[in-house]
Amino acid sequence: MSDQTVKFMLGEQDIPTHWVNLMADLPGDAPPPLHPGTQQPAGPDDLTPLFPMALILQEVSAEPRIEIPPPVREAYKLWRPTPLYRARRLERALDTPAHIYYKYEGGSPAGSHKPNTAVPQAYENAAAGIKKLTTETGAGQWGSALSFACMLFGLECEVWMVGSSYDQKPYRRSMMETWGATVHRSPSDVTEAGRSQASHPTGSLGIAISEAVEVAAQNGDTNYSLGSVLNHVLLHQTVIGQEALAQMAMAGEEPDVVVACVGGGSNFGGLTIPFLRRVLRDGARTRFVAAEPSACPTLTRGVYAYDFGDTVGLTPLMPMYTLGHDFVPPPLHAGGLRYHGDSPLVCGLVKAGLVEPRAYRQNETFEAAVRFARTEGIIPAPEPAHAIKAVIDEAEAAREAGEPRVILFGLCGHGNFDMSAYDAYLAGKLEDPEFSEDELNSALASLPEAPALT
Amino acid sequence: MSDQTVKFMLGEQDIPTHWVNLMADLPGDAPPPLHPGTQQPAGPDDLTPLFPMALILQEVSAEPRIEIPPPVREAYKLWRPTPLYRARRLERALDTPAHIYYKYEGGSPAGSHKPNTAVPQAYENAAAGIKKLTTETGAGQWGSALSFACMLFGLECEVWMVGSSYDQKPYRRSMMETWGATVHRSPSDVTEAGRSQASHPTGSLGIAISEAVEVAAQNGDTNYSLGSVLNHVLLHQTVIGQEALAQMAMAGEEPDVVVACVGGGSNFGGLTIPFLRRVLRDGARTRFVAAEPSACPTLTRGVYAYDFGDTVGLTPLMPMYTLGHDFVPPPLHAGGLRYHGDSPLVCGLVKAGLVEPRAYRQNETFEAAVRFARTEGIIPAPEPAHAIKAVIDEAEAAREAGEPRVILFGLCGHGNFDMSAYDAYLAGKLEDPEFSEDELNSALASLPEAPALT
Questions:
Q1: B432 vs B168: CA distance, rounded Å
Q2: Distance between CA B25 and CA A65 in Å, rounded?
Q3: Is the pTM higher than 0.80?
Q4: CB neighbours of A6 closer than 8 A, spacing ≥ 6?
């Protein structure tokens, strides 16, 4: 090991003061979400049963920068700024001329990037007099982040956890309960939506969303909180990319390619949006790679269409790549990537050719994750393992081409709660599900009648 | 939340360049370790079957400062410097005038302070041409730290994990295996020592040490590595206290009391030694509190005597507080505190009245840990939960006395691998073992014939 800087640290004063909103910079007009009943453009009022007005205004804002409320910035200090690392040991192991950097969000109390949006969501709901938040969670990253954030601001928290993850990751449930939350296995029998989906016992994010939305819609002092997909969620996550921009400048390098995994899009958007704005405004030549599971290949094999965000059809119709809202992906360990759709904002960027999606099998992502752990030391969550697989491909391509390449990726969480998956992988017993053309066509049959997207 | 600094960060350049050795500053002459056969003072040569000479020289050094090798300092950059936090939310919840600070070591890849010594130990062994390290581990913190460090320096790693923890924390095993280590449940059937202790199926640190030492002693290219107790281990951990000194200066405060948990003493020594030196040299008036489990009350109820470091009697006789080397503590979740003895250095400080030991029941430490998690956000490992209980007592005493008090404590690891214990605690099902006078007397009967200590 040579005596070189491997970690680029910022100070508390460098935590961003504003979030970056990409809406004003997008090419063309973004198609609006539609009311699920009337199929007319949904306005702020359609969202008031679920969200406080402050978040709704962020959702629809076209302002390029939105100030971070001081109490939110104060709470960010508990784990921000997060470090940027140069992966020198991985570079050497790959014998690549590429320089690999990663922004690590696993140091937050919940172990991922999710508190970046859980905290402002809890804050704005508490400020609006709300007493309880409901939500869904896949692998448990989002549910634990919201439990943590609700604890900070004195809110109750009720979580529907996707059945397959609930069974695989019991300790994520204990974590939520340690912070004071109530956790249900989804589909549950405490909601209409859950009872209607009892025939899908492994559950899905779509089903769990239906359950949480149902309870929030029925109770005046209860709101719903979503951990990804929506504009305001991606907005909150832009603290990641803004810090990474400053840290890449400290390292004296410009990324040629920025890589992140995509489930609903909040990690991807959070890291890439500040870099994307430079591409859109200043003509910077950066590539963007979105990594997803080939068993839930929304961006690579889905269709670009209006679809519901949940399984039952309670949410607005959103313009996105989708596999059909009643698609239930196999029980991947990357629970956070098991979603039939994706953020409309990220989908628009893919549609516009600004973001290149790639899909990977479960086993090859764990192979990449173990390679990373055995060089860099940090054991990644299964979700960013998809990004690592894409990064290794990029670094090997640079070696083949004999050209330098600066790669930045988002290591959005640690794998401490995913060791059963590593155990299975190391024992050669990890499932490696695929997604056939027949399954795809069957899933897409659930697409609702709605205006076409071009 | 008001807009106040809660986290004190240092830069990479502030990682200490030297370790702090307290040996030269101790009052009186420290009693020497004795050879287990001859009972004569053990010299460096007695340790060569187990340790490389560089570590042996650190073990017996009286130099006040020892330089950190550049490759070690380089590896430290992967997670150091670590943050110091002001626990403002806990202070408010306790309604105390005390100011509470904590130094958090849970951000290392292995999740605790243990890599601080695992890295220099792996480095010096690799530099000496050793191919494999053996070790024991309780809760798995140390075993995973050494697995991580061996991976960094290309060494094989073989770990004996205390049976009760092996059963309670399977994912710590997966973590070690992810980094490439081999893990045995102790007592195992692959060593003489393990086979001789088959009647203690829950195991103990003492038994696991015997197994690891046996294998290292029998193989020329294999050395043994200990995660606590010895002088050179505490030495390596002083990076914690040195950083904390600088960070307390950033905060503009002097601690009145420094608190840490004690299992073998490395976390306690690492945090306190730089502060203790100021007491010994400059007459600073700082109190030191060592927190241990009342079910393994080495410092509070043990006797100060020569005893073996392991159960079978392979190690030198060490001057320490001990419960008797064949004492097998009940299967506490704080596996890292289940040790019959303690660091001779820390024991000498207790004997000299410089350190006040306190013992706590398992349930009251989890109550403190949940209180901490529900205010500060970080979920503590069960070991530092003992320190948190002591801190809450100190803060409440300050409130009762109506006086300011600055408290610093070591939060030496996160509880991500201990959620089953939190689960049991929250369900009201956590065992709360005590340690009777009869059990104490029975354990002490195993003390070897050896020169008396005064």
A1: 16
A2: 57
A3: yes
A4: A85, A86, A88, B74, B77, B78
Q: How far apart are CA B123 and CA B133, in angstroms?
A: 11
* Residue A229 CB contacts under 8 Å (≥ 6 apart), including other chains: A264, A265, A266, A309, A318, A339, A341, A342, A343, A344
Where helices occur in A85-204 by DSSP H, the ranges are: 88-94, 115-127, 141-153, 163-168, 170-178, 192-196
Q: Nearest 10 degrees: CA dihedral of B184, B189, B191, B195?
A: 130
- pLDDT tens for residues B250-274? 999 999 999 999 999 999 999 999 9
Q: Shortest CB distance from B171 goes to which of A77, A89, A419?
A: A419
Give CA–CA dist A140/A166, Å, rounded: 8
A439 Cβ contact list (under 8 Å, min separation 6): none
DSSP label of B24: G
Which of B7, B174, B414 shows the shortest C-beta gap to A12?
Answer: B7
CB pairs below 8 Å between A and B: how many? 129
In chain A, which residue's Cα lies nearest the Cα of B421? A174
Tokens 């006395």 locate to B401
ipTM of predicted complex: 0.93
Closest CA to A205 of A325, A357, A27, A75: A325
pLDDT in tens, B384-436: 999 999 999 999 999 999 999 999 999 999 999 999 999 999 999 999 999 99
First-to-last alpha carbon distance for chain A, in angstroms, is 53
Which of helix, strand or coil describes residue A36? coil
Within 10 A of B330 (CB to CB), how many other CB atoms are there? 17
d(CA A287, CA B112): 37
- What is the rounded distance in angstroms from the CA atom of residue B343 to the CA atom of residue B318? 9
